Amino acid sequence: MARSSQTQIAVLGALSIEPMTAYAMREAIRDVLGHFWSESFGQIYPTLQTLEEAGHVERRGGARARSSVFAITPSGTARLVELLTEPAQKTPPRNGLLLRLFFGRTLGRDRCRELVQGARNSAEGRLVEYEELLDRLAGTEGHTPDWPYIRLTILAGIHDARAAIAWADEALAELGTPHEESDSP
Amino acid sequence: MARSSQTQIAVLGALSIEPMTAYAMREAIRDVLGHFWSESFGQIYPTLQTLEEAGHVERRGGARARSSVFAITPSGTARLVELLTEPAQKTPPRNGLLLRLFFGRTLGRDRCRELVQGARNSAEGRLVEYEELLDRLAGTEGHTPDWPYIRLTILAGIHDARAAIAWADEALAELGTPHEESDSP
DNA sequence: ACCTGCATGTAAGTCGTTACATGATTGA
DNA sequence: TCAATCATGTAACGACTTACATGCAGGT
Q1: How many angstroms separate the CA of A42 from the C1' of C20?
Q2: Mean pLDDT (10-residue bins), chain A, 185 residues
Q3: C-beta separation of B99 from A88 below 8 A
Q4: What phi, psi does A35 have (nearest 5°)?
Q5: Which bases of chain C come closer than 7 Å to a protein CB?
Q6: For residues A45 and A93, is the Cβ–Cβ distance under 8 A?
Q7: pTM for the model
């Protein structure tokens, strides 16, 4: 219940890979999973507390009080499987680019080109990021049993970025070259 | 300010295409733009009021009080251009499928296959929907100056759905056939 | 007479982000 | 000793959804 179950998936899932501190979890989620799922800082701590009370995670207070490593418990693993099995609750779509392009007549053709060009650039950037991530993680995680799944996730990002690029090219072709109807004769 | 500017784009944009009642706007946004951008009911009314106070839209009270058609004013058009020009504020990613797949080891290979297969089916469904939408709108909107932009928007959806299908096929191939290691000899 | 669809709004509540506040540890 | 980084948490605020409440018009 409490704390949307999706956040619990992220937290329990992170601990299913290895025990870590809340701080480390925040970074892990930001740097890797963050490409597909975001959790804000203010969610992680309360969720950890809830899970601790429920006995799904346990706090291994390091020698120093000021740094507790969390680990998942057997009941936590069971809970994670339960949550993973629930159908993904679909987030309503919110694509700022398409919202703008939809009303492109008002914005003007040239501005739309810029918009699409920007989207293309950012998709190219993402593509490079994903490919680097794949290489980097293949080195560090390549031998863990989690790797095949992580890889598939990143692969989805790659397909997505490529599709965005292909679409942008098609759109740019249809929008024509700039100034086509304005200054030259 | 007030009421995230993105909602204002949707509302002013809808009126830039043609004047309509709040109710009609809700339906238009749900049925067409809804594939890429969602606005809930409870957002539209307050936003219309805010915009009316600012003079960006005007209410043409039909003969019967109980049905007011809203229209965009010149200042509203200016405001829309201003908003469209602002960079799209990126929504943090929230992909429930990838969140689950990422922790696929815990879920188990067979369950993951089901997950991906489900995603593939839903992408196929979306693809069909987009293609139908394209056909349907080509008939009703095909001659309006907004059409080229609406078309590009739907095209983005088509590219996206195709990419999802291609990814799913790749993923299914890598996840192997079901029962491969369980029951048969 | 009644049901469905058009139409307008409000209020409560959830969800999530951001900013703030605090302190320990470590290396320069 | 001073700055940067690791680390933990809270509180206020804002965004968005849902459910609720109301009523008219037109067709059967």
Answers
A1: 12
A2: 77 95 92 92 91 92 69 96 90 93 96 96 96 94 95 97 98 84 47
A3: yes
A4: -70, -20
A5: 6-12, 14-19, 23-25
A6: no
A7: 0.92
